[in-house]
Each structure stands twice: as structure tokens, then as C-alpha cells.
Design a protein that fits this description.
The protein has a single domain (about 1-105), classed as Transcription Regulator spoIIAA (2-Layer Sandwich), CATH 3.30.750.24. The chain contains five helices and six strands. It has helices spanning about 25-35, 55-70, 80-90, 95, 105-110; strands at about 1-10, 10-20, 40-45, 50-55, 75-80, 100. Strands 1, 2, 3, 4, 5 and 6 form a six-stranded mixed sheet that branches.
């Protein structure tokens, strides 16, 4: 799994590529918690190139959301598609989190 981040008008866009499973989810947690520790609280997570997510990945997403909520922040997701979207829908994450068809749409809603 590869994780990259960039800033776009006070929103941190995090791009995740590959698979988020029990082996890689801790990397996601470490990266996102480091960004939060730097004071970043508004996130758009781009899953366009995420091929797979397991329950371990879902746990890390939920953990991040809880931390952000305590800090008055928010997270939304862009380009959630294919089997990753199916997992989001089956787990109820599709109703918990905002999902957008593009990073641009997510950024527009985040502002």
C-alpha cells in the first residue's frame, strides 16, 4: 500500500493505493495520526486506486474518524468504487461517511 498526502485549501487530501488489510492498515493509521498530530483536521481520502479493504482497514478508518470528531475535524471519501465500495455499503460505512465521485466534489463539499 502506498499513501501520499497534499494540502488543498486547508484540506488534506490523502491518496491510498493498493490494498488496505491487516498488514498495511497500521501504516494508514500511523500516517493519518501523524498528520492529525501536525494539526490537520479536515481530510479527503481518495480511494480511486485502492483495490481491496479488509475489516482491519475499516477499523482504522473508524478510529481516525473518532479522533477527528474529538478535534472538531471531518473526513470524507472520494472515488470509492468496485469491491471497496461494496465493502463500504455492506458494512454501513456508506451511511456513516460522505462519499463523493471525485476529489474535486469532496473538496467542494468540505469547504
Amino acid at each position: 500500500m502506498e499513501i501520499q498526502s497534499r494540502e488543498e485549501q486547508d484540506v488534506t487530501v490523502v491518496t491510498v493505493t493498493g490494498k488496505m488489510d491487516a498488514l498495511t492498515a497500521p501504516d494508514y493509521q500511523k500516517t493519518l495520526h501523524a498528520l492529525i498530530a501536525e494539526g490537520r483536521t479536515d481530510f479527503v481520502v481518495d480511494f480511486e486506486d485502492l483495490d481491496y479493504i479488509s475489516s482491519a482497514g475499516l477499523r482504522e478508518i473508524l478510529s481516525m474518524a473518532k479522533v477527528l470528531k474529538k478535534k472538531g475535524g471531518q473526513v470524507c471519501f472520494a472515488n470509492v468504487q468496485g469491491t471497496v465500495r461494496e465493502v463500504f455499503e455492506m458494512s454501513g460505512f456508506g451511511t456513516i461517511f460522505q462519499m463523493h465521485d471525485s476529489v474535486a466534489a469532496a473538496l467542494a463539499k468540505a469547504r
